[in-house]
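Allow me, if you will, to draw on your knowledge of protein folds for a short while. Thank you for your consideration; the sequence and its tokens are set out here:
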Amino acid sequence: MKKLIASSAVAMGIVLCSQSAAAQTAPATGEVTILGRVADRCLFTLPSKIIDLGELSLPGTDASAGRLDPSRVNGASETLEGWCNGTAATMTVEALPITNITFVAAPPSGFDTVVNYTATATANSVDGTDTSANAGPGSAVSIGMFAGSIPVVLSGASTPTGGIMVAGDYQGLVKVTLTPNVSFGQPT
């Protein structure tokens, strides 16, 4: 009986060894997963420009002399450059009045120290606008993913009373804000 058990054990060992040897000839595959992220962001590559309007008032000796020359403002433009890499990016425009920075007191009746206007910025064929007569930025517009020029154009220039422009230096500002709307966090 001992010989029978020993013979059976030897036979089983040979079968197991041959199965084991056969299993080792098959390839084994392991995997390494690679992860990464790109943050959703916007960037101005040319973030600032200057529009020099020159003399803002009309020349001459008639009743319009000294009042705003709207043609100096309307159509004036400059181009920023930028990009957004996310599909949900937005843009807002905020136009701040062109204000006399030399004469800061309230102007007398019949005079003006402020020029209001509308600013329009275009990104990815979408226009964002704001008028300087209203505080705060205009409504956000969806611009999505884009890279390129962002022209800013001024229009609709006027003064609060149509009065004579007070002498001095004038300054205004158009703020264009590109905002990514999705955050994927930082890579770990």
Q: What stands out?
A: The chain has a mean pLDDT of 89. Helices lie at 2-24. The chain has one helix and ten strands.
